[in-house]
Amino acid sequence: MTATLINPTMKKYRPMRPPDEDTASHESCEEEEADVEDHHLKPRRPFWANKIQFVLACVGYSVGLGNVWRFPYLCYKSGGGAFLIPYFIILIVCGVPMLFMELAIGQYTAHGPIGALSQICPLFKGAGLASVVISFVMSTYYAVIIAWAIYYFFTSFKSEVPWASCSNRWNTAHCWVPFHNHTKPNGSQTPTEQFFEKKVLNVSPGIEFPGGMRWELAACLVCAWVLVYFALWKSIKSSAKVRYITTTLPFLLIIVFLGRSLTLEGANVGLRYFFKPDWELLKQSRVWVNAASQIFNSIGVAFGSMIMFASYNRFDNNFLHDTLAVSLINAVTSLIVGIFTFATIGNIAIEQNTSVKDVIADSPGLLFVVYPQAIAKMPASQLWAVLFFFMFLCLGLNSQFAIVEVVVTSIQDGFPEMIRKRLVYHELLVLCVCVVSLFFGLPHILHSGIYVFQLMDYYAASLSITYLAFFEVVAIAWFYGIGRLSNNIKQMTGQYPSFYFRFCWLIAAPALLLALWVASLVDYTPPTYRQYSYPAWAQVLGWTIASLSLLCIPAYAVVTVVRAPGNTIGEVSVNRNQYMAQRN
């Protein structure tokens, strides 16, 4: 069947040696000179100025919110050390091979996820569309995390950090300041917990009680989108320069916080929880599904980000080195962040005379409760708080840049004529995407926003992603074919992919992803926030959100087959041109 779906005489899309200019277009020089007056009307695709910019973009995404916010949260939620085992298994079997595969098709086709999948296997163009849908949904609530970071960042400039004591107007009688080896009273909350829930979020009793707008957070959310817009408005030429700061500086601060956390009393208790697995938890499918979603979130596999980044590469770039570098940096950074997070949690456990797993209820706000509590005890706590939340802001922006660029690039690739006629300038397209995403992010900053946030993250980023990753690897490895993909890689890098990559693409990755997806459906449990259970209508809303991406793949496949020439499936299968991977 594969042979009937692919064009075996595919031509190169780009020349082996593109122009030398740093931001050279894929158009010829003659065309540029002929239309110099209307150069802004033509959709142009620049190259990265150098290899460092590409690697920084990939590393900036992987060492972003996926590692610093999501990894500690899911690791704590999944039992610490029990999470690390499936995490590294899935990284080796699925993460690294699929990253290599995505960089290959992105660089070879010079298109974002929709355009790349359309050329590789038009029957599965819906997989590319699904990745863009997920990226758009994630952009709406990832911006909210950045808004929280901005709020904390500016609050840190006060003479005394407000989460250090129980003497503030938002504190209740249940507020309790931890001190050495005194057990936390039942039903009490630390100042950092109350600051996050009662001051920052002003949480309502449930999603059915939306309340009003948190105007302080609304201002921070607008600020977040303004930063994203001005980083992306000139395409990769502007975002690449911003990443020199937002990617490199956080690494220095991560090392500083690692050193500080290891000196805290009780750090060894937290590290023991982090590295010592509870073998019983490995029997739970949710731990494996969480590990898979974390791999894909951090590396960007199945979200379209890496395909998009690679589409700006020169044709002969050796992306094998990039794959290994990004994967290694991602894994090492995850461990470092995990170490300083759990060292800090261990210190809090000693203070509260409790076990590590009972320090705080697992919630998306884990980072905004644990770190501020540790920072409040440090000398010059305001300085440490400013540095930490500046680091977190940079990492959040890196993730947001990549997610929004996927949406922008896909719209440019999919509707070049409309963009040329209606929006004219790239800046207007970026502005439209940012404004629409800002609008859809507003429900997250109501009093019930944290419940909406948890719902979106559960269904969009966790439940859907293994499904999407499975169909992506099937479309490329099975329908397009390992042989053709290997030949394409040989054209670009001068060498064929190893047996390890080919085995994972063809057998190991699809089998593991299918097993994880089926297990997640069989053992499905509705999302919760602390002790709060979502009503039935909210779960229906969650499945509707998930379906926005899940249905893209079968729906587009059916439409493609129906529109194909021929009256029967057999006749449709013979019409190769309908399913060719064409590189114009």
From TrEMBL:
Residues 1-37 are annotated as: Disordered. Keywords: Disulfide bond, Membrane, Metal-binding, Sodium, Symport, Transmembrane, Transmembrane helix, Transport. It is found in: Membrane. Residues 17-28 have a biased composition (Basic and acidic residues). The chain crosses the membrane at residues 52-71, 83-105, 126-154, 213-232, 244-267, 287-312, 324-350, 383-408, 428-446, 458-480, 500-520, 540-559. GO terms for biological process: amino acid import across plasma membrane. It comes from the Eukaryota. Its main location: membrane. It holds the Pfam family SNF. Na(+) binds at G60, V63, N67, S298, N330, L395, S399. This is Transporter. It comes from Diatraea saccharalis (sugarcane borer).
